[in-house]
User: What shape does this take?
Amino acid sequence: MPLLPTTTLLDCCCLHLADAMLSPLLGDSLTYAFRESTLPGKLILLVLFCGSIFSWSVMVTKLRVLTFARRQTERFLAQFRADRKPLRLYENGARFDGAPIFEIYEAGCLEMTFHLLGSTEVDETFRSRLEIADKISPAQLRAVNAAMERAVGECSLALESQLILLSTAVAGAPFLGLLGTVWGVMDTFVGVAQAGKPNLAAMAPGVSGALITTVIALLVAIPAMFGYNFILTSLRSLVVQMENFAAELLSEFEHKYVAHGPSLSERLAAFKG
Assistant: This one.
């Protein structure tokens, strides 16, 4: 049995794909246009189809992550603000996975306990050691603030990961569609010129096959644009909330654990000197 050429195999696969997906979703007109598109046009449509899958997967994943993060953040803030002791949740080993604010809290508590106790270990003597610990200096508090700022930056980068796929779909899909349309129209005019029959019936199939790339490109770019703007706005809101919480936690630490004058050990050393 003779083997089909690669171009014929690609056309067959593309036609089956069009019948299976385009007909139920977009109707017979776009399916007809897809059948009349050239090989470069079909390749561009395949790229757009893959880009649409990636962009939708990013949007769904990010929306789920943001929804879970908001829910966990509300739970964490409710428990944190119910107790005026900022290290209580850290002492109890509470976990709020998925809440970026909790990662900032944990980073601040780790740095604070290191400066207060010389260790980040939480054991049965943690509370008693904390009660008799000397207060830290403003310089040490700045180190705690730096740790929380690093945590805010790392959480922001983690939340914004993969958004490049959405921005690429928004910016690149229309240009790919325009490329496919211009290429298809060019091939149509070349074919009509070679046939020597410049009539609408000869040009219509080729033009319709060229225009489908622009239509599909817009169908890829428009949802990605709305999804990108919504996700980016939600992320900025969450980042502002993280920065505000870091400032709130720093203020709590300063009121409870920071000595603005010489510490007790420093005063004893000065007295002995």
Notes: Residues 39-262 form one domain.
